[in-house]
Amino acid sequence: MYDILELNKKLLPELKEVAKGMNIKRIESLRKQDLIYKILDQQAIDAAAIQDKKSKPKDSDKRGKKPERTK
C-alpha cells in the first residue's frame, strides 16, 4: 500500500506503472496529482472489498443443516 507522500516522490512514468498494475483505466491523460488520487482511491476500494469478503459468513455453512425438532 502506498501513502500520498510516497506517491508524490515518484515520477509520472512510475505512477503510471503503479496504476497499470492496479488495473486503473484511462491513466494516460491524467496529471500527476490526479493519478495519485486515483491510486489512493483504488487502494481504498480494494481494501474495502477484501474486508467485506472477510466479514461475510460463508453460505456453505448455512446449507445442509436442518433445524432440530423439539418433542
Question: Can you tell me about this structure?
Answer:
It contains 4 helices and no strands. With 71 residues, it is mainly α. Helix 2 (12-21) runs parallel beside helix 3.
The geometry reads as rod-shaped
Order of helices and strands: HHHH
Count of helix runs: 4
Provide the structure class.
Answer: mainly alpha
Structure in a nutshell:
The chain has 71 residues and is mainly alpha-helical. The protein has helices at residues 4-9, 12-21, 32-55, 59-62.
Name its key features.
71 residues; mainly alpha; 62% helix; rod-shaped
Strand and helix map with partners:
Elements: H1 4-9, H2 12-21, H3 32-55, H4 59-62
Helix pairs in contact: 2-3
